Amino acid sequence: MSAIAGIFHRDHCPLQPQQLEEMIQALAHRGPQGCHSWLQGSIGLGHCLLWTTPESIHETLPLQQETLVITADVRLDNRPDLIDQLDLQDPDLSQLTDSQLILAAYQRWGKSCPAYLLGDFAFALWDGKQQQLFCARDHFGVKPFFYHANRGAVCFCHGNQSPVNSARGSQSLKPSESWRLSHLNAL
């Protein structure tokens, strides 16, 4: 499985590149096809790539399309249905990546897009127009997503919670009892 990481300074303080790079390096073992990052002002997204589907060999993540940027570990099982629902007319659908499908789904359905995705996924999407970070994972939690949020910043990763702990400068994250209950109620 690939790995993703990111930091968003809600207070709009500039993100130092080494903050993001330290998180990515902690996940580098999950990305034999390479690790890359995208940084703009107070937001940074990272990705360590492992090819797992025929389409994933065409992935370049983080991926920017206009004001949207995504980093994702994703395997979509309903690609043909999504392509039909989104009315995509790409000349070579075999090269259309799952992260590109998620971007198209977000453009169509906004924050409701995970309801249309079937498969295993964890992703973070920066909407530059809205100045919002949107994160989601698959419905069964096959792809874990660790995060910490406070008034000043949000940091996240998928694959191993250690980078989040390092970024926030604390011991390991433990879900609260209220989080456990709300998570179980959502199932």
Topology (SSEs and partners):
Layout: E1 3-9, H1 17-27, E2 35-40, E3 43-48, E4 63-65, E5 68-76, H2 79-85, H3 98-109, E6 119-127, E7 132-137, E8 146-149, E9 153-158, H4 162-168, H5 177-186
Antiparallel strand pairs: 1-3, 1-9, 2-3, 4-5, 5-6, 6-7, 8-9
Characterise this structure.
It is a single chain. With 187 residues, the protein is an alpha+beta fold. The chain has a single domain, classed as 4-Layer Sandwich (Glutamine Phosphoribosylpyrophosphate, subunit 1, domain 1), CATH 3.60.20.10. Helix content is 25%, strand content 30%. It has five helices and nine strands; from the N terminus they run βαββββααββββαα. It has a five-stranded antiparallel β-sheet, covered by helices on one side. Strands 4-5-6-7 form a four-stranded antiparallel β-sheet. Strand 2 and strand 3 form a beta hairpin. Helix 1 packs antiparallel against helix 4. The chain is globular and about 40 Å long.
Brief descriptors of the model:
9 strands; four-stranded antiparallel β-sheet; Glutamine Phosphoribosylpyrophosphate, subunit 1, domain 1; alpha+beta; globular; 187 residues
Short characterization:
With 187 residues, this protein is α+β, with helices and mostly antiparallel strands. The chain contains five helices and nine strands; from the N terminus they run βαββββααββββαα. It has one domain: 4-Layer Sandwich (Glutamine Phosphoribosylpyrophosphate, subunit 1, domain 1), CATH 3.60.20.10.
